[in-house]
Amino acid sequence: MPDTLPADSVGLVSPETLHFDQPIALACGQTLDSYDLVVETYGTLNSDASNAVLICHALSGHHHAAGYHAMDERKPGWWDSCIGPGKPIDTNRFFVVSVNNLGGCHGSTGPASTNPATGKPYGPDFPVITVTDWVESQARLADRLGIEQWAAVVGGSLGGMQALQWSLSYPDRVRHAVVIASTPKLSAQNIAFNEVARQAITSDREFHEGRYYDFNAIPRRGLMLARMVGHITYLSDASMGEKFGRELRDEAYQFGFGAEFQVESYLRYQGERFSESFDANTYLLMTRALDYFDPAWETNGDLAKALAPAKCEYLVLSFSTDWRFSPERSEEMVNAMISARKKVSYAEIDAPWGHDAFLIPTPRYTDVFTAYLDRVAREVGA
């Protein structure tokens, strides 16, 4: 880490924990009597609170989207490439709010939090959370911050689902929804990948039916396997081939079952690192929220009809090699928006990195993203 931070960084940031005493009724039928949300904010809220942008995170994301927590922090927040002075989400113009969702494992109330009814961690007793529940909790966060309407709600992957749901749950409270590398519902194949990941976790002998906290245990192997499966789906065949090919760690085959290929070593490293930082019960919750998301469920599969309440404008972005949430799924969403007579801009970005491309600042992606947010800023006088 250098002695000084990059000029286009939001700099040193500190998360804040906000407590909510008002009970929140969840889609599953259960209620949380109170809860905490951890947030980070970047930039300055203007006098009429019109320049606020909400960042919604993906499955393994959290509130730390930009900047650094300390001068010796090795990497900045997970979307630092897009948030900061002069970047697509320009903090010289916008007040940016990034939140760790309910059910998360980075400070917001989740399975590892203490259940006030038992004095022990919730574990598997934590209620199943949906995208709609997250939007409700984020609306209460907006109330707390004095934000009546978001200039934009922005998210990639699972975050894009939240941006889309915002436009339906609170149509008067969002001017623009930016939906990146996302989908209006998971395919059967995507649900299958999520189920394999969950089975990897729940079949780990250290899972203890979700009560591993009581045993001072972590289902590391299950989390590692779940992350390895997920990570494969986030990358394209071309990007994996370019990065690893069939390169061996040693000069010859070892005729065993250790990590002989570089790609095997990489996946094991990613899985091991993830198992040390992410909660298994949270992973189960997040993947199930992905599975359940389907705004057209209540309109008999008619997405255009489901979009009827929306009043915002949309930017939808997809990536050519994203086979997890393919451009065809984004186009399905865009066509429904057009049928519903909504204002929508769409671009498919040619990028070789698969689903992870939404985290990588390629020139055309950055140009399109910047141009759209520049228009949003001008609309709100930022």
UniProtKB/TrEMBL annotation:
Pathway linked to the protein: Amino-acid biosynthesis; L-methionine biosynthesis via de novo pathway; O-succinyl-L-homoserine from L-homoserine: step 1/1
Keyword Transferase annotated: yes
Job description of the protein: Transfers a succinyl group from succinyl-CoA to L-homoserine, forming succinyl-L-homoserine.
One GO term (biological process): homoserine metabolic process
Positions annotated to bind substrate: R227, D356
Region forming the signal peptide: none
Domain annotation AB hydrolase-1: ranges: 51-359
PANTHER family in alphabetical order: HOMOSERINE O-ACETYLTRANSFERASE (PTHR32268)
Protein's recorded name: Homoserine O-succinyltransferase
Main localization of the protein described in the UniProt heading: cytoplasm
An MF annotation (GO) of this entry: homoserine O-succinyltransferase activity
Site (Important for acyl-CoA specificity) location in chain: R324
Reaction(s) the record says it catalyses: L-homoserine + succinyl-CoA = O-succinyl-L-homoserine + CoA
Enzyme class: transferase
Record HAMAP family: MetX_acyltransf
Family matches, as InterPro entries: AB_hydrolase_1, AB_hydrolase_fold, HAT_MetX-like
Pfam family, one: Abhydrolase_1
EC number: 2.3.1.46
Upper lineage: Bacteria, Pseudomonadati, Pseudomonadota, Gammaproteobacteria, Pseudomonadales
Superkingdom of source: Bacteria
Recorded GO CC terms: cytoplasm
Complex and partners: Homodimer.
Keywords: Acyltransferase, Amino-acid biosynthesis, Cytoplasm, Methionine biosynthesis, Transferase
Compartments where located: Cytoplasm
